[in-house]
Amino acid sequence: MTRSAIDLPITDDDRRIARLAALAIGLTLAEAALPSPIPGVKPGLANIVILLVLLQHGWRAAAWVSGLRVLAGGLLLGSLFAPGFWLSLCGALASLSVLALARHLPTRHFGPVSLSVLAAFGHIGGQLALVGAWLLPAAALIKLMPVFAAAALVFGTVNGLLVARMLAAPGNDAAELSGIATGARDG
Fold first, then answer.
1. What is the DSSP string of 7-75?
2. Helices vs strands, H then E, count in the chain
3. What torsion do the CA atoms of 181, 182, 184, 187 make, to the nearest 10 degrees?
4. Would you place residue 184 in the very low, low, confident or very high pLDDT band (cuts 50, 70, 90)?
């Protein structure tokens, strides 16, 4: 076996991010299989993982997990560089930007539910901005906004409640979240 000229050390953080990204990718694939009554409206199940990572490991780890999820989801769903990929990427970038700003808000008023709702509105806002610039005229976009805003509010609230419940579970800590994807801890 030929040894690589580039020797990159793999840290426990790298392994944790890979496991959490795998979990987010799995949720993305599962969600893609779900029928949607309104095209483009999805519950954002992978955003649960992103929010958990943000709250337990910080924004940088959440950004890695989100970016890996978008890229791998595009590859695995066969939509890499197709319009759906760009919509997902714009939504993820806008959501991460909102979460980066929201980290500076008082934590006693902005917990998992409000952060999830803000992220959901950021996500749909990023997607609608791209759609408005690329695909639809402004008049058509305005008609879609109430539907997407309502979906962002509902799914953002539900996902935030799920995150709050997971964080409040007895014995919950960062190591347990890291073991979700494999069902076991590093050995």
1. -PPPPHHHHHHHHHHHHHHHHHHHHHHS--SSTT----THHHHHHHHHHHH-HHHHHHHHHHHHHHHHH
2. 7, 0
3. -110
4. very low
**What six digits make up the tokens of 96?**
């991460």
Compute the Cα dihedral for 176, 62, 95, 181 and give only its sign. Answer: negative
- Residue 39 in this model has a pLDDT that exceeds 60: yes
Q: What share of the chain is helix, strand, coil (3-state, %, to 5)?
A: 70, 0, 30
pLDDT band at 7 (very low <50, low <70, confident <90, very high): confident
User: Comparing C-alpha atoms, which of 42, 123, 47 is closest to residue 87?
Assistant: 123
Name the residue with tokens 């008609």: 143
Checking phi first, is residue 136 left (phi over 0); if not, alpha (psi -120 to 50) or beta?
Answer: beta
Residues listed for the chain: 187
Token digits of residue 173: 């800590």
Residue 175, pLDDT score:
43
Domains and CATH numbers, the chain: 12-178 (1.10.1760.20)
Quote the CA–CA distance of 149 and 126 in Å, as a whole number.
Answer: 12
Beta carbons of 138 and 186 less than 8 angstroms apart: no
pLDDT value, residue 173: 55
> For the segment 160-182, what is each residue's pLDDT rounded down to a tens digit?
999 999 999 887 654 445 444 44
